[in-house]
Write a structure and sequence with these properties.
Blueprint (H helix, E strand, L loop, with lengths): L2 E3 L4 E3 L5 E8 L8 E6 L6 E6 L6 E3 L7 E6 L4 E6 L8 E9 L2 E4 L3 E5 L2
């Protein structure tokens, strides 16, 4: 079955950097569009970044443009979210996402806390 595995929670200081990996299994990773979302309590889950199957196209939310990048290694079935210049408002649970045959699959979520 489809599995998306993310690391445990992280605490980082404002202005710091963090790279989140998401390792996939159960589908042909190199054929799938991959995305990262985030969610804070009381708000809807929002799209942060996405990347096409071969990595040739990327897209970012306006709130993270210029600070976050997304990449993938299809030999390792892993997609990465590189976050830099982190702000307290980036604090959220971050989720890896893909779709297969019209069905959405989510990672378990990883708490990222930006605080001094």
């Amino acid at each position: 079955q489809v599995q998306l595995v993310e690391p445990g929670g992280c605490l980082v200081q404002p202005g710091g950097s963090l790279r989140l990996p998401c390792t996939a299994s159960g589908f042909t990773f190199s054929s799938n569009f991959m995305s990262w979302y985030r969610q804070v309590p009381g708000k809807e889950r929002e799209l942060v970044a996405s990347i096409t199957s071969l990595g040739s196209g990327v897209n970012f939310a306006d709130s993270v443009k210029g600070r976050f990048t997304i990449s993938r290694d299809n030999t390792k079935n892993t997609v990465y979210l590189q976050m830099s210049s982190l702000k307290p408002e980036d604090t959220a649970v971050y989720y890896c996402h893909t779709r297969k045959w019209g069905v959405s699959y989510w990672g378990q979520g990883t708490q990222v806390t930006v605080s001094s």
